[in-house]
Structure formats: C-alpha cells, structure tokens
Amino acid sequence: MKNNALKSTAAVSLVAILLSACTGGIKNTAATDSTTTDSMVVAGLKPAGPAPEWGKTIKPEMQVVIEKLSSYEDKPLETLTAIEARKNHTPTDAVRDLIKQNNIVVPVPKVDTVGKDIDEGKIHLRIYTPKDGNGPYPLIVYYHGGGFVIANLDVYNASAQALAEQVGAIVVSVAYRLAPENKFPTAHNDAFTAYEWAVKNAVELKADPAKIAVVGESAGGNLAANVSIMARNKHIMLPVHEVLIYPIAQADTNTESYKRYENAKPLNKLMMGWFTEQYLNTMIEAQDPKISLVNANLKGLPPTTIITAEIDPLHDDGVMLADKLKAAGVKVNTKNYEGVTHEFFGMALLVPEAKAAQAYAADQLKAAFK
To answer: In Gene Ontology terms, what is one molecular function of this protein (predicted)?
Structure first.
C-alpha cells in the first residue's frame, strides 16, 4: 500500500479502526486505543524461530513483529532510493497483519481528527482532539520518525493517538517536509514553524496556551529537542516538557550500542548512515548542533523525559543526551525498555513494553501539565 495524500482525514478515521501501531516507513496504517488489557496484548504471539543473533534478549512479542517484518523480504533500505525506500513494508505493516491474523479486537478511537495546512501549504498537520470533555485541553506537538527521509503521519498515527487519549490532550502531529527533496535544515525549520503555529492558535484549538509540550520519536525526537532550543533562542514560550523517544542525538556511529546492534532490525547502522546522507547537504553538517544535540547549548531547556530501547543502535544516543542535559542543569527522567527494538513505542496492542512506555510518557506529561 503506497503513501496516499496525507490531507485525506476521512481516510484516517477508517484506518484508525484497523490498527494500533506506529513505526518508520510510509505505508498507510494507523492506530487505536493503547489502553487494552494485558491479555489482549499478548494474545497468541509466539515466535516461530530462535531469537536473532543481533538480539538474544528480545521479548517474544517483539520478535514476532520482527519475524513478520522480515517475511516481506524487502530489499535493504540503504540500497534503495528514497522513493523506493518509502514503498518498503514497515513494522506498522507487520503489526497490522498480526492483528488481523490473530483476530485481535481493536478498540474504537477516543479522539476525532482533522487536517490543517500551514505555511502556505508547505506543512500539513493532523490534529487529534479528545471526544470527552470540552477543554481547554493540554496541547502536545508531536514529530514522527523516519530518519528525516521516510514515514508519514499515518505510519505514526498510533503514537499520536495514544498520547491524545492517555493524556487527555490535543495532539498536533506534524508532517514536516522530507529529504532528499528537502535538505537540512528544512525539517528542523518546519518543526519550529509548526510549534509556533500551535502556540499562536492554542486557544482556537480549545487548548490551554500555558500547557504545551513537545514529543518526538527517533528523528522526531531530535526535532522536538531542537524546537525547545529554538524557542529558547527566539524568546518565545518554551514547552513545559519534552518527551524524546529514542532520539537521534549525535553523529558517531561507533558507540557501544551501534557496535552491539549494528545489524539489528528495524534499524541498523547502515540505515542510519543512509538517512544522514539523504538529509544533509554535506557530511560535515553531521557535527552541527542541530544534528549532534550533544554539542548544543542545552541550558535553560524544559524538563525532559527520554525513553530508550535496549536493542537499538540509538540507545546510547539517548543516554548521552540525558547526561548532557543533566550537566546543563535540566531536570531529566529516563527509562530504558529491555528486550525491545527501535520503533517499539507505537506497538501497544501487541508488545507489553510499548503499552508500559506509552503509560510512562503519559504520566510524565500529565505531571508536567499540572
């Protein structure tokens, strides 16, 4: 299923009934309520084979998703053009198929969605509003992953929807422009433009302008942190909190987690190099503080929650960024989830650790909004 126009919000309502997962890629898939019972989470999911060599500690449910992803036999992303890569299956597709195969009941979404174009149509937003209550709600600006190159709002629908439902917040999910069609720092500038729009239009959205947070996954985690830095530098309202989920935080691919999980799935070392080449104008830009957040001035940033996955080349990025933030005087809470891979966060209907991570992120945000 190839990527259709993100501006079709009617399609979102249909897709949202089908799936509770979100990960990197570009296929049209979506999400559901992440507050399902544990018995539903683990229903019938047993790996077909032994744990992979690159992930001996992998949890059974996580392994089932990876096995399904591998069964599609797509060509390695790093051997493809960006356009070709966006046609590959994603972990979201794997979760969708597993839900169907296991006859797992998907709860009806507790949010309404609407699309919005800003910045002369350059940036598309998907706005999630809780069906319960009348507001004003807290507001979360959310940035999806995909290495600045692949993925879209549909692929990461589950994360945005889960945050809206569990926090009781309006979520503005941002379709920033992708590389290589739009090189660095386009995604970063788009991310901040969307945040500025959310701040200025909070009241119109039925949100509380004093309660705005940013959340991002992977490349989106990098963007969320940059939004906080840019807000500080431009002297506009800072987010009250930021949640960074396995963020890209530096350019050294020789960290211990890069070495240990060099061949991991769904993200490996070669893919990260490919993403970097697609987005940057020159490799020298990899040292820019916008990419290597560990080199940035992090003083005065909002309290931060960092979520990492054990079986992930980017695990150490999150650890290093947490250390740098603490050294800069920023309040930081971190939690690592054992036995799961990059992109696990949106898989709450299948993977118990994803359900737990979503609840943790929601708790952190609710505390910040108080």
So the answer is: hydrolase activity
Told to judge if 208 belongs to the known catalytic residues of this protein, a careful annotator would answer no
Indicate whether 2 belongs to any domain: no
Q: What amino acid occupies position 361?
A: A
The catalytically annotated residue of 218, 228, 257, 292 is 218
Q: Write down the catalytic residue from 93, 154, 312, 316.
A: 312
Indicate which residue of 144, 188, 315, 342 is catalytic: 342
Q: Which domain does 239 fall in, by range?
A: 9-369
DSSP letters spanning 83-124 = HHHTTS--HHHHHHHHHHHTT---PPPSEEEEEEEETTTTEE
Task: Using alpha carbons, list the distances in angstroms from residue 205 to 15, 43, 130.
Answer: 24, 38, 12
Q: Is 312 a catalytic residue?
A: yes
4 belongs to a structural domain = no
- Residue 3 in any domain: the answer is no
Half-sphere exposure of 228 (CA within 13 A, CB side): 31
Evaluate whether residue 37 is within a structural domain. yes
Respond yes or no: is residue 342 known to be catalytic.
yes
- Average pLDDT, stretch 232-244? 98
Contact 198, 149 (CB under 8 A): no
Pairing mode of beta strands 304-311, 207-217? unpaired
List, for residues 245-290, the tens digit of each pLDDT value: 999 999 999 999 999 999 999 999 999 999 999 999 999 999 999 9
Rounded Cα distance, 33 and 122, in Å: 30
Q: At 225, which CATH number?
A: 3.40.50.1820
Has this prediction a pTM greater than 0.85? yes
Quote the number of domains for the chain. 1
